[in-house]
Amino acid sequence: MERFFNPLNASRHGLTTWTKKILRENGFKPRKKLGQNFVVDPLLLREVVSNVDNGSDAIEVGCGIGTLSISLIEKTRLLLCIEIDERLCSIAKSIVEDARFIVLNADALKTPFTRKMLVSNVPYYITSDLLVKIARENPVEKAVLTLQREVAGRLVARPGSEQYGRLTVLASIVFNIKLGNVYPPSSFYPKPEVSHRLVVLTRKRVYSEEVRALEEVTRLFFSQRRRLFEKVLGGLGIGLGELGSIASRLTGRRIYMIDPDSWLQLAIELHSRGLL
């Protein structure tokens, strides 16, 4: 009977009531340490689904009780859910009774992403690690994600701002980033402490040795984000003369003020000279 409930057409109250009912009937108590907050806002579900390509083979990271899965299954050709909680795997399979829905009880951070489309209401405790993994997994061409609002802001932060950092650089080099709507804590059950925002990542660059070098460069430099570039460079035992023409774009600038393209050019230069 539950299979015919359509979350996209429900009211927020109706979806919240349905969610609590499913959890209660299955004796399931959400675990905060696993970031188990279930979507109860049909507007959020509709925005996610509207950004998913028709007929795509998709991965859903963390299907929960299957609320978003029900909505996605009608738009995708095949939907693979990677869910770390075995109890939720059982619930989702009982809710989404469709041969196109496959549930894998596994850790998404340790599972290869082999499909072009990825969707997730991202658990907060794996957010940064998952974003980096998506960037590294070239088969993923598009990701539709619900992220904490602060993290979404970090992805598009400007050089020189407090939010600007390593994740900003990697994301902006690998993806085109589109920000969607903001959703308050009441859009989830149980209510998280912060608002969330939809983010769509579309790959513009494959993960290569040059991007790997970019990750290493930002790891070395952003640990001293407020120091002048040449000061940090000297501490690494590298002279300005070893940087070629890129040196003039970097000297006199503090680490957190250097734009992503300059970081990539620095990584390419250091990698080509065998310094990384």
Write structural notes for this entry.
This protein has helices spanning 12-25, 42-50, 67-73, 86-95, 127-136, 149-155, 166-174, 209-221, 229-235, 247-250, 260-272; strands at residues 38-39, 57-61, 78-83, 101-105, 117-121, 142-148, 175-183, 188-189, 196-203. The protein has 276 residues and is an alpha/beta fold. It folds into 2 domains: 2-203, 3-Layer(aba) Sandwich (Rossmann fold), CATH 3.40.50; 209-272, Helicase, Ruva Protein, domain 3, CATH 1.10.8. The strands form 2 sheets. Strands 4-3-2-5-6-9-7 form a 7-stranded mixed sheet, sandwiched between helices. A two-stranded antiparallel sheet has the order 1-8. Helix 5 links the parallel strand 5 (117-121) and strand 6 (142-148). The longest helix is centred in the first third of the chain and has 14 residues, at 12-25. It is elongated. The model has no long low-confidence stretch (mean pLDDT 95).
